[in-house]
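Revision sheet: C-alpha cells.
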Amino acid sequence: MTTSRHARTAALFASLSLAALGLSCSNDDAANSNPTAGTADSVVTTAASAPELPTVVVTYSVLAAVVSELVEGVANVVTLIPDGQDPHEFEPSAKDLETINNAAFVVANGLDLEEGLDEALANAQQAGVNVFYVADHVTVLDIVDVNDHSDHGHVHRGADASHSDDEHSDEHSDEHDHSQDPHVWLSPHTVREALPALAKAASDALEVDLAAAQLALDDKLVALDTELLSLFSAIDNCQLVTGHNELGYFVDRYGCTVVAAIISSTSTNAEASARNTEFIIDVINTHGAKVIFTSLGTNPKVAEQVAKEADAQLVTISTHFLGTSNDYVAFMRTLGTTIATSLS
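Predicted:
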C-alpha cells in the first residue's frame, strides 16, 4: 500500500513538472514569434523622411528677404552675395556657379547691379535655368545727376568745373553707359509692382500655387508703403545729401530730393573728385543741410572731410544689404525712420 501510494505521488509530481515545462516552452515560443510582446520600449517606428525642397537662388540679401516670404515652406532660398559685400564688385566662385546652375529658380536685380554675375546668369539661362530679373517688371527711373544744379537758378563753387573737366567725365562714365537706376528695391511700391510677375514665374518654376503667399506679401508691402508715406508727409523740406546716388526710387516715392551726393554716380565703383568735394560742401552750406547719409561704397575719409568742413553730421544707412534687419519690412522701416529722425 505504502509503496503504491509513493509511486502515485511520484507520478503526479512528474506530470505537473512536464506541464510546467510545456507552459514555459509555449511562452518562450510566443515571445520569440512576437518580439514586441515584451514591453512598449521595444516598439520601433521609422518616420518617412521629408522630401528635399528645391533651391531658389537670389543674388543679394534684401531681394532674398522678399523672395523668402513668397516661397516659404516650398523652397530653400540661397543668397549669393554676402551681406556687406558690394554687389557691383562681386565675382562668383566655382561653387557659386554650381549653385546657380543647379537651382530650380534664380532671382536677380538686373540693370547691371550684379555686373560680375551677368555672364554666369546668361549662361545659366541658356542652359535652361529659370532666371527672373526684377528690373524687367517695374517702372524704371532714369539716373538723375543730383550734382547738376544748373536749372536751380544759382551756382555753387566748383559746379562749373565739376561738370566740364576730365575728372567729372570719368566719374560719370558709368552713368553714360547705363542710364537707368538699378536700386529698385529701395521702394516697396516698386517691389510691389514686380510681385505678380515674380509670383507667377516662381509658381511655374517650382510647380506650386503661390497665390495665397503673394496676397499676404502684397498686403505687407501696401502697409509698409502707407507707413512710410505718412512718416515723410510730416517733413516739410526733405532735402538729402548722400554718399552716392542711390536713393532715386525712395525720394521719388516719398517726396524728398537728393540735393547732392559725394559720388553722384549710381555705381559705388565711381570715385569722388576734389572739385566735386568742394561743390558738395558749398551745396550743404547753401541748402542748410546738417546731415550726410553715407552707405556702402562711400569713401569714409572723403565723407569725414566733407562733414568736418561743412559742419554736418554723418549718418550711416544700410541700403544694399539687410544688416541687422530680419526681413524686408524691417529693413525699409529702419531706413525710413533713420532718415526721417535725422532730418527732424
